[in-house]
Amino acid sequence: MLKQPKQLRSPFMIAPMIGWTTRHYRYFMRLISQEVTLYTEMITTGALLNNSDHDRFLAFHASEQPLALQLGGSVPAELSEAAKIAQRYGYTEINLNVGCPSDRVQSGCFGAVLMKDIHHLAACIAAMKAAVSLPITIKTRIGVDDYESYAYLADLIQKVSVAGCKTFIIHARKAWLKGLSPKENREVPPLNYEWVYQIKRDFPQLAIVINGGIKDLAEAREHLRYVDGVMIGRAAWHTPYLFRALAFPELVDWKGSVEDRIAIVQDYIAYAQAAFMRGESLSHVLQPLFGLFHGVAGAREWRYQLTQAIQMNVAPEVVLRKMLIEIANNRHG
């Protein structure tokens, strides 16, 4: 494992995912691990600058720290203003989305489109860097459409680093902006980890974080032989308990892990009930729990009962305590 750069708080990170890394998910993940850096869903500059209710987009629970905000935008002045607003909320980092390939993002000329104009991307970073004292980072791809060569990627890294970005999170796939859906863009273009490794070798002074297709901590630790950090996305959603091993490696025992997962849910119940009583969507509140019991007896029934509870709008305090009893019975059965 490489020596961790001082600009990284942890070598382990959970990727920003629209519709998934909500404040409820982040609160839940903090019950599992204090050792990972969390990222918000992407928030557009328009959402912040065209609405006076910034709490709706930016408020978070103190336990979520360290927490980075991911911004989507392409106008330097707007990005700098959004960064100022975010800094007042106490985020530890501002990350610019330079990798999303969705049609909505393309129509706003940000996300992966920004890779096609390195000078403009550098101007966006410089504007935010001049506006706030927070670290400004980017999450990008190794290429986009026909802008695909190691030389182009290295040129982007060099010019954007001069503008003030010292941490680069690189999804090791190119993005196709036409012909592939966002889901296909996470699966179809082949992974090229070696380019990311080479970027670290060529830019040793920068913090380089790898992303894309990483399923567990064993794979993550292998990558840490070559880069400074690892960002995990879909696996963090489908198997969130995997991060528990960062602090408690002894919980590999099946029985011990079930008891521990039950305790995590018990800690989440009061939060979930309070959110439900405030009128929050029950689906959003219970959504983070679906993958918690992945791999243990009763996991399928757990997911089914969560779905039923959402459909029937049952108070979390009632349904979760009942479900935990059933999980415990499976554990002793």
Question: Could you explain the architecture of this structure?
Answer:
With 333 residues, the chain is an alpha/beta fold. It is 45% helix and 15% strand. It has helices spanning 23-32, 45-49, 55-58, 76-89, 103-107, 118-131, 150-162, 182-185, 193-202, 217-223, 234-238, 254-277, 282-286, 299-312, 316-332, and strands at residues 12-14, 38-44, 67-72, 93-98, 136-144, 167-175, 207-211, 229-232. It has an 8-stranded parallel sheet with strand order 1-8-7-6-5-4-3-2. Strand 5 (136-144), helix 7 (150-162) and strand 6 form a beta-alpha-beta unit. Helix 1 (23-32) runs antiparallel to helix 12 (254-277) and helix 4 (76-89) packs parallel to helix 6 (118-131). The mean pLDDT is 91.
Average pLDDT, rounded to a whole number, is 91
Strand order in the sheet with the most strands: 1-8-7-6-5-4-3-2
Radius of gyration: 20 Å
Q: Into which percentage range does the β-strand content fall?
A: 5-15%
Number of helices: 15
For the biggest sheet, the summary is: 8 strands, parallel
Ends distance: 41 Å
Series of H and E elements: EHEHHEHEHHEHEHHEHEHHHHH
- The secondary structure category is alpha/beta
What does the overall shape look like? globular
Regions with little confidence, pLDDT below 50 for 5+ residues: none
Helix share, percent: 40-55%
Number of distinct beta strands: 8
Write a compact overview of the structure shown.
This protein has 333 residues and is α/β, with parallel strands linked by helices. It has 15 helices and eight strands.
